[in-house]
Give the backbone structure.
Amino acid sequence: MVRITTIVACAAALLLPGASRAQQWNSAGLEQSAIDASKTKSAPPPRRDLTGIWDAGGSGIAGPGHQSAPWTQWGQQKASAYKPGNGPRAVYEADINDPLSTVCDPAGFPRLVLYETRPFQVVQTPNQVLILYMFEKRWRVIGTDGRALPKDPDPRWYGYSVGHWEDDFTFVVQTVGMDERTWLDNAGNPHSGELKVEERYYRVNRDRMELTVTIDDAKTFTKPWLGRDKMPLTRAPANMDVMEMICSPTEVMDFRKNISDRTDKK
Amino acid sequence: MKAKLLGVFLTAAGLLVASTPSFAHHGTASFDTTRDLTLKGTVTDWIWANPHCFLKFDAMDETGTVRNWAVEVSNPTDMTKRGWARGSFKAGDQVNVNLQPVKNGAPIGRLRTVTLPDGSTLSAGGPAPAAAALPQ
Amino acid sequence: MVEFGRGRTLDIDMRTHFTFFTIAATALLSVVAAAQNLPWNNPGGVQGLAAPQTGPTAPAPKRDLSGIWDAGGAGIGARGMPAAPLTPWGDALGKTHHSGDGARMVPAPDINDPLSTMGDPSGFPRNLLFELRPFQVVHTPNQVLMLYMFEKRWRVIWTDGRQLPKDPDPRWYGYSVGRWEDDYTFVVNSVGTDERTWLDNAGNPHSNDLKVEERYRRVGRDLMELTVTLDDPKTYTRPWVARDKLQLRLLPPDTDLMEMIPSATEAAAVKKIYAGEK
């Protein structure tokens, strides 16, 4: 039996228009209705401007991972060592060896945009586009001062990024130098240190943006492929307070001890 | 107005999940998706953490003994959207838990719905129940 | 031989991977200091470069903290902060913290610092009191955003007039609101911090009831001072100042901060090294 007060609370918090304004703290995530509305009811896009808090809704999560291009032999070998929790090669919980979910190592880039792509905020300074992610509460700098990408960079979990405006509504980002230890996505697709990632942020209208992510890693895949193909992002109210979503290794170990490590096949 | 209330009602019961899916980082391989169990028990622990919140409770089950069950739901962010909170349970609470158990017979599972001492129900918003009936 | 923030020295292979844990990165910084002007991978100032400038600096802009700020060596806080006296509750909690440095220092294998041994989040306010590396401040119409090099985490300070939440669900990094007290002083109040985090590297404890006040005073165009006051009557017998006009210098806007992210796997590897010492 559902309590009436629960219904009222849900209505106030979730379904009434402008409800997110009433809920100042912990207001992460738009409802589907707001996401659907951004397709049609909006205003023209501003030029060279991606600022705001953006929400991909359910499509950002990508639990089962992505359909990649075929692996090279090197890629095949690397992938065979990965035991993911989801996707076509999913294993029992107790056997998962995903460094993110079993150990809380950094998700890294581009996994941050290919998995658990929760709301993120974009701010622009004279020489940067900054992306601030709810997931892991990490931030990325995209240098727009014309610097070249580094040659032979020391690997980073989140790579090195530069960006430029291709036209007034399309911002293109190139990233190199990503750490091979990170998985590409939640299906356990691997990548090498030679990976190059291109993101294209296309501002459709005032409230909508589309993200396309191209994975180019000749060492791992036989050809480039799209990790995201015009993934729609809806602009959230500026006062949205994204909740904290930070992995703690201690908490993960506690979860494994209590649940996942005990689910193995007998 | 009627349609909106119905939407509210169904959302509150977790039958129309408007928000993001749970259990993203792992699928259903470990779980027996053909079964669901309902157990009456006493809460021993409620862990509010990433990657999963989980509830531990003592319950008599089909083994004929009282075992300490551990049932997972999604992360705090997703659960907050469904009306759950860090303080939703405390040790000693009498609860009725509907869950999907794991395949290997251990007292572990995925929580689907739980009825609290005051009679209210929280839904995990996970796998759809076998028969999508409206609550009475 | 490299010196750690743990107050110990240990021979260790120099790693070229800059995302190794704090302890190695502290050593590597002195190596790359000379590369200050490279477009990529600037670690910020080291000791010496944070020395006070002589002569007048340009005047401070009004109501503007934007830029990349660097406390230099003074930001690290390896030995922790001189805290106020503890209450009995605080003392009991503090005794469970076995730190790598400062007043509760133990031999390396016995350290139980969740940050250094597990890679758990540093949390707030520890990220101001320990390993306060360069950070960037960005203003939006309703927020001041703090973007930290250490852990690559970001914080929102809401300036839209909202109240701090009553009875908040604890967060690693708390909940913050801020306002301008005058044109050069930005005051931030925070609540709802998680008591699992340590206050500093000496293992000073805090409760979920902790209230933190930060005062950012823009002294000149290139200089800002940070004062951090802690108010936690459950843990300490009185409020105390943990950072007292910490000097922060403005870095060039094209500074590319290195990545400095503790990873659980790397923390576990270090733990193993220390365990081998037993």
Observations:
- Strands of chain A lie at 52-55, 120-125, 128-133, 139-143, 160-167, 170-176, 196-205, 208-216, 225-236.
- The mean pLDDT of chain A is 90.
